[in-house]
Design brief:
Keywords: ATP-binding, Cell membrane, Membrane, Nucleotide-binding, Repeat, Translocase, Transport
Helix content: 25-40%
CATH topology of the largest domain: Rossmann fold
GO molecular function: ATP binding; ATP hydrolysis activity
Strand content: 25-35%
Membrane topology: Peripheral membrane protein
CATH architecture of the largest domain: 3-Layer(aba) Sandwich
Oligomer: single chain
Number of helices: 18
Number of domains: 2
Main location: membrane
Protein name: Monosaccharide ABC transporter ATP-binding protein (CUT2 family)
Shape: globular
CATH superfamily of the largest domain: P-loop containing nucleotide triphosphate hydrolases
Distance between the termini: 52 Å
CATH class of the largest domain: Alpha Beta
């Protein structure tokens, strides 16, 4: 039985036809995949379904009846839950308040705090998530916030649940918990839409698939049991996608480290962290949600207080005050996992986003930055990274997630950094763009950059890293030299994560 159908939906923006006659059907008791490259129209379609955008053509049908949603609240009231790719938590509220925001429990006209805690714990338990319902969401990591978003969507007990990149910032263990919940929803007769660039997940949990390309449906409700991975990728990109082959690259293990941590502790709770990254080396930092990986990176950049130990850059002990100090005085760049809030200026042109790190270099007398020099620099990196834009004047907030991530990376490459910390580089990135990012990161290391790579995507880690340093509870619990054998590496890394005590591999 079809619970929901988007029929021949159109959506137009100035100069762009984002959706062109797209059709999507969601069946009761089924998990349906929605696939496509960045900019294909997936998130736009979800925003139309949930009332954030009004369609310019076509119909939305719920239980066979046409519906029109003027806001997300209206779609939620009709039984459509959603987890967006961008965070939608209210910063001033607690975990529990955010989870139960659609219907806060009350008693005698007042918010019932005890009921909020009890109900929130129930939905957090569904995801095996050990969080305090009274904790402010501003204290959560990006991955924890993603899981709270999922708990929030579950609490509405929707008949139709839309999951837009729900596993983008979480590790395989957390993803498995989510898939278990999705299976229970499916058995209960719900219709689940699953958007992901991780095709192994799609084939693991989905029954059918719709593929979008350039705002149109190139496959509607295809049976996944009758499709191969290459066939799906071919539908997404318009040609068979070749497997990524990276050229040989060697690391001089005798070279002095460009970045070195010796017994580092932080105000966040890190202790005794030892870490080295040499020129031309990619060191992976892996761990479960809450292990402290991103927090460690931010402490290195002066965004958190280092309370013990020593940070050395090119052999010299340093105390980095902020991101500007890290870039100007130590040639350290940071590609953040949170591109929407920290990686790009959404309300500024692409040109300004890319050139902002090099204005000091381009600036002439009286602070004047020549437009011609800025345009040439921007054009170089737009071409190098394949950033899809209408013009350099286009606002970054109008770009797809993948293109925003490219802009975030471009500004650090333009600044000629020598040490690059890259946090979750391919979250929400399609398969072809992901391969381009992997090739780029590999080439940057081959040209001598020291790269500290943080990713929850274990295949990505095993593809790129020369060594994998594993963290647990804000400490380094072991290290695995990478021979790029996925089965062996994944077993050793996961064993370290769950082992008691500290182990070296």
């Amino acid at each position: 039985m079809t619970l929901f159908r988007a029929d021949q939906v159109d959506k137009l923006f100035p100069g762009v036809r984002a959706l062109d006659g797209v059709t999507l059907s969601l069946e009761a008791g089924s998990v349906h995949a929605l696939l496509g490259e960045n900019g294909a129209g997936k998130s736009t379609l979800i925003k139309v379904i949930t009332g954030l955008y009004r369609p310019d053509g076509g119909r939305l049908l719920l239980d066979g009846d046409e519906v029109r949603f003027g806001s997300p609240h209206e779609s939620a009231s009709a039984g459509i839950g959603v987890v967006h790719q961008e965070r939608n938590l209210i910063p001033g509220f607690t975990v529990g308040e955010n989870i139960l925001l659609q219907a806060l429990p009350t008693a005698r006209g007042l918010v019932d705090r005890a009921a909020i805690r009890a109900e929130a714990k129930r939905w957090l338990a569904e995801l095996d998530l050990d969080l305090d319902p009274d904790q402010p969401v501003t204290e959560l990591s990006v991955a924890q916030a993603q899981l709270v978003e999922i708990a929030k969507a579950l609490s509405v007990q929707s008949r139709v649940l839309l999951l837009d990149e729900p596993t983008a910032s979480i590790t395989p263990n957390e993803a498995d918990r989510l898939f278990h919940v999705v299976g229970k929803l499916k058995d209960a007769g719900c219709a689940v839409l699953f958007v992901s660039h991780k095709l192994e997940e799609v084939f693991q949990i989905c029954d059918t698939v719709t593929v979008l390309r350039d705002g149109t449906s190139v496959l509607e409700s295809g049976d996944l049991t009758e499709l191969t991975r290459d066939e799906v990728v071919d539908l997404m990109v318009g040609r068979v996608h070749e497997a990524l082959t990276l050229p040989p690259r060697t690391v001089d293990t005798e070279a002095a480290p460009l970045l070195e941590l010796c017994g580092v502790g932080t105000a966040t709770g890190h202790a005794d962290v030892d870490l080295q990254v040499r020129p031309g080396e990619i060191v992976g930092l892996y761990g479960l949600v809450g292990a402290g990986r991103s927090e460690l990176a931010k402490a290195l950049l002066g965004l958190d207080r280092i309370t013990a130990g020593e940070v050395r850059v090119r052999g010299q002990a340093v105390r980095i005050r902020n991101v500007r100090d890290a870039l100007r005085n130590h040639r350290i760049g940071y590609v953040t996992e949170n591109r929407k809030e920290e990686g790009v200026f959404l309300d500024q042109p692409v040109s300004r986003n890319i050139a902002v790190t090099v204005w000091d270099r381009l600036r002439k007398a009286l602070g004047y930055v020549p437009a011609k020099a800025e345009a040439a620099l921007v054009a170089e990196y737009v071409e190098q990274l394949g950033i899809r834009i209408a013009s350099p004047a286009q606002y970054a907030g109008t770009l797809s997630g993948g293109n925003q991530q490219k802009v975030s990376l471009a500004k650090w490459l333009a600044a000629k950094t020598e040490i690059l910390i890259i946090d979750e580089p391919t979250v929400g990135i399609d398969v072809r763009t992901k391969d381009a990012f992997h090739t780029l990161i590999w080439d940057l290391a081959a040209h001598g950059l020291a790269i500290l790579l943080i990713t929850s995507d274990l295949p990505e880690m095993i593809t790129l890293a020369d060594r994998v340093v594993v963290m647990r509870d804000h400490r380094v619990c072991g290290e695995v030299p990478n021979d790029h054998d996925y089965d062996r590496m994944s077993q050793q890394v996961i064993r370290l994560i769950h082992a008691e005590g500290t182990t070296a591999a």
